[in-house]
Each structure stands twice: as C-alpha cells, then as structure tokens.
C-alpha cells in the first residue's frame, strides 16, 4: 500500500503560477486544476494506492481567480 497526502492549496498555487493560462469553454481558468490532476495521475501511475488532498479554506481568496480555481479543484476532488 502506498499512501500520498497532497497539500492541495500549495499544489494549486504552484500550478496556477507555473503553467500558462488555459480556459474552459465557459472562460474559467483551468490550467492549475489540470496541473494538479496530472500530478495526481502521475502518483497513481507510479504506484500510489491511496491519494488524499487537503486544502486550506480562506474567505480572502473567495473572489480571486486563484480562489475560484481552488473551488473548482475541490469540486473535482469530491467528484473523483
């Protein structure tokens, strides 16, 4: 068994500022979410059997593009 705990806020922050902008059909920024998903899939490909993602919650981020990205990723994590 190989377990990974991911700091989701850090990973989203890192991918948000490291990757070029990408938008979905509704105009929402999705590059960071794609980056995190690619990282998690890489962990699974390398043998991770369990992956948990923890995120911070901050009201000051709620109206920023970065904050919207965190909400999108959280929804994606809950759906997966």
What's the overall geometry? globular
Total strands: 2
Could you tell me how far the N terminus lies from the C terminus, measured between alpha carbons in angstroms? 20 Å
Arithmetic mean of pLDDT? 78
Strand content: 5-15%
- Here the CATH topology equals Rossmann fold
Element layout with pairings:
Elements: E1 3-7, H1 8-18, H2 31-45, E2 50-54, H3 65-79
Parallel strand pairs: 1-2
What does this structure look like?
- This protein is an alpha+beta fold and 80 residues long.
- It has one domain: 3-Layer(aba) Sandwich (Rossmann fold).
- Helix content is 51%, strand content 12%.
- The chain has helices spanning 8-18, 31-45, 65-79, and strands spanning 3-7, 50-54.
- Helix 1 (8-18) packs across helix 2 (31-45) and helix 1 crosses helix 3.
Core attributes:
about 80 residues, Rossmann fold, two-stranded parallel sheet, 3 helices, 2 strands, about 10% strand
Short description:
This protein has 80 residues and is an alpha+beta fold. It has a single domain (3-79), classed as 5'-nuclease (Rossmann fold, 3-Layer(aba) Sandwich). Helix content is 51%, strand content 12%.
